[in-house]
Design goal:
3 helices, mainly alpha
């Protein structure tokens, strides 16, 4: 366990985000997870945009094959 000092308005914001019975740790973990997901989605979008036409075709073929295996 550790103690973290927060501004009063930050605690108030956490209180608004917190569900009944949820801990501050859970709220902060959820926010951190959402931030990581947002960063990863942004990086993935940048990576897709940098692909050339041949690479996109290979990716589309791979996804189609993967979907067939999952069915």
């Amino acid at each position: 366990m550790t103690t973290v000092k927060l501004q009063i308005r930050t605690k108030a914001t956490l209180d608004e985000l917190k569900d009944e019975g949820e801990t501050y740790d859970a709220v902060i973990s959820k926010l951190a997870s959402q931030a990581k997901e947002k960063i990863l989605k942004s990086e993935l979008a940048k990576a897709y945009k940098s692909l050339d036409r041949d690479e996109l075709k290979i990716l589309e073929d791979w996804e189609a094959s993967s979907n067939e295996l999952e069915e």
